[in-house]
Specification:
571 residues, 12 helices, binds fe (ii) ion
Length: 571
């Protein structure tokens, strides 16, 4: 099934969901949060009766469109376009959408309006417009929204190539982990200028905290990035809290510029809801172990549903919805499916997974495991394996949230996995996946990972015993955090040692499958796929500089096509 088919499935899913909302309207609790009549689903435009809706100036652009614009959900024949109208500016009436070849809009490609019922306070005055079927493959467009005589800033969007087209290269900007309170988004100012096809975000787009708790003792203060949640709590509790966080994060000018320039493919991780979250299959509810109400199944469900609703409002993404059956309102698994895939012509397939909504709790003890402990859940795991097996492109890419390779910080009896919240807590399932891929002869398999606030590269294997016949399956590239606290920030307070060297040496000695490890930088990576190679370049950007931080190329590595070898590229 190619990306076009995926898109068709989603359309059916959306329609079914909308019909289902009438069924679940009477259901209380989280179901009503998630399925209000104001569910933020992508909408089609209609032809305007009054052409004057396209007459506009830009005098009040930022007042009317304070979060600017974004695009996402690319298909070969469309994208989703997103904006938010400031609630105090919205007085009813249609919002117009204009798509052109350039920012003059002198030759409109598409013009339409969204009628006012689609812009309801129920979804925080966000609008997502679906242009699937209206645009051409592998094409860049300019777009803008117009409301009441004011035009938004002009964005640029990009469609996918035709699934069968021959593609020479495809470039992704890869980002993750952008704690607003722990630095500035200078990385995004450079991403905006990068010549890439799409922006891939691997999660922790927001952090649920307003009290700066995800920082190190030596972290710099950023008083102009203080936050105050509407609920008054330190951690998000309500839909209003999550909306506030997204709207504040998206007020950042560098982030806005990058989302205006590039079409977004967004995943998520734990902090879009709460730290280290997982699913408790005994109570069939999410669990938020770091949240004061996170052990209460009802509260954790309510908080997760609120966070999901805010996510759906904020991201132009083709997410599957399915209606819950009356009497089974607690099944978030049936109602929100983040996992999806994208095909970039004959060159690359990207398979994006959800590693939070279906995962078992991590093991309580280091090296602990149980054979059926799952990160993906049974259904998603099968979907994932099928998607990899079915990929007909040269490269197959896993858009992945948490580190898949083992990261051991000791040997023998004292050996311990550092981060059991990552795949180190779910080793048996990882082995199952890798063995499946090896058995099926999967080649040119690249995994792009976020979460650990570190730049890293290494090998995915069926096993890591040096005396066995375990084999390499693929290569994992981790992108550094935009701002979130990294290892160097945590240990820099120790005098007389260079923590970067010590950490990298320790990690690569104890983990010979890891070729490159650096937790001393912040920034982003550019990953390019061609017929010859996959090339990963990490850029570091100083997060403490607000306006114009320099970027530095920090490392470039490549994997020649047909191999599982990481090669260094001379700088
Ligand atoms: Fe993070």
């Amino acid at each position: 099934m190619d990306s076009q088919d995926d898109s068709d499935d989603r359309r059916i899913g959306r329609r079914t969901f909308l019909q289902g909302t009438t069924l679940v309207a009477a259901v209380s609790g989280f179901a009503s949060v998630l399925s209000d009549s104001g569910v933020a689903v992508p909408v089609d435009t209609v032809q305007p009766t009054d052409r004057s809706v396209f007459t506009a100036d830009t005098e009040r652009t930022d007042a009317v469109f304070p979060q600017s614009v974004a695009s996402g959900g690319p298909t070969p024949e469309g994208v989703l376009l997103w904006t938010r109208i400031a609630p105090e500016e919205y007085q009813g009436g249609p919002v117009a959408v204009e798509v052109g070849w350039d920012d003059s809009f002198s030759e409109p490609v598409h013009r339409g309006v969204v009628e006012s019922p689609a812009i309801m306070a129920d979804h925080d005055h966000t609008i997502t417009v679906d242009l699937d079927g209206k645009l051409s493959p592998d094409t860049e467009y300019a777009y803008r929204f117009i409301y009441n005589g004011t035009a938004s800033r002009t964005g640029r969007c990009q469609t996918l190539p035709d699934p069968n087209a021959t593609i020479d290269s495809m470039r992704l900007a890869v980002l993750t982990c952008q704690d607003y309170q722990n630095g500035y988004y200078g990385a995004y100012s450079h991403v905006a200028e990068e010549n890439v096809d799409f922006l891939l975000h691997l999660g922790d787009f927001i952090y649920e905290s307003a009290d700066n708790q995800y920082r190190a003792p030596i972290s710099e203060e950023y008083p102009d990035r203080n936050l105050e949640l509407p609920s008054g709590h330190d951690l998000a509790h309500t839909l209003a809290d999550y909306r506030y966080l997204y709207n504040t994060y998206r007020s950042d000018p560098h982030l806005q510029r990058a989302l205006e320039r590039h079409t977004l493919i967004a995943g998520w991780d734990d902090h879009e809801v709460a730290d280290n979250r997982y699913w408790d299959y005994d109570t069939d509810s999410p669990r938020l172990p770091s949240h004061p109400e996170g052990d209460d199944p009802d509260a954790a469900t309510r908080i997760t549903a609120a966070a999901i609703k805010a996510w759906v409002e904020q991201f132009p993404a083709r997410i599957d919805y399915e209606p819950a059956e009356v009497g089974a309102p607690g099944d978030l698994h049936e109602r929100f499916r983040l996992q999806r895939r994208f095909r970039f012509g004959d060159l690359t397939t990207l398979v994006l997974t959800d590693e939070r909504l279906f995962r078992d709790p991590p093991p309580a003890f280091a090296n602990g495991d149980k054979p059926d402990r799952t990160m993906l859940g049974t259904d998603q795991r099968q979907w994932f394996l099928d998607a990899i097996d079915d990929a007909e492109t040269q490269w197959t890419v896993w858009g992945n949230e948490v580190l898949t390779m083992p990261l051991e910080m000791g040997t023998g009896a004292i050996g311990s996995y550092l981060n059991r919240d990552a795949w180190d807590g779910y080793r048996d399932e990882y082995r199952t996946i890798m063995r499946h891929l090896a058995r099926n002869g999967t080649s040119n398999f690249i995994t792009l990972t976020g979460d650990l606030h570190t730049a890293m590269a290494g090998y995915q294997r069926t096993g890591y015993d040096p005396f066995s016949d375990d084999e390499r399956v693929g290569v994992e590239f981790m992108t550094p955090a935009v701002t979130s606290v990294n290892l160097s920030e945590i240990v820099l307070g120790i005098d007389d040692i260079d923590p970067f060297d010590v950490t990298e040496q320790a990690v690569t000695t104890l983990n010979p499958h890891i070729e490159f490890f650096d937790s001393s930088i912040w920034g982003y990576s550019i990953v390019e796929f061609t017929g010859d190679a996959c090339t990963y370049t990490v850029y570091s950007v100083d997060k403490s500089v607000k306006e114009s931080p320099r970027k530095q190329r920090h490392e470039t590595l490549r994997v020649p096509a047909g191999t599982t070898e990481i090669e260094s590229v001379e700088r």
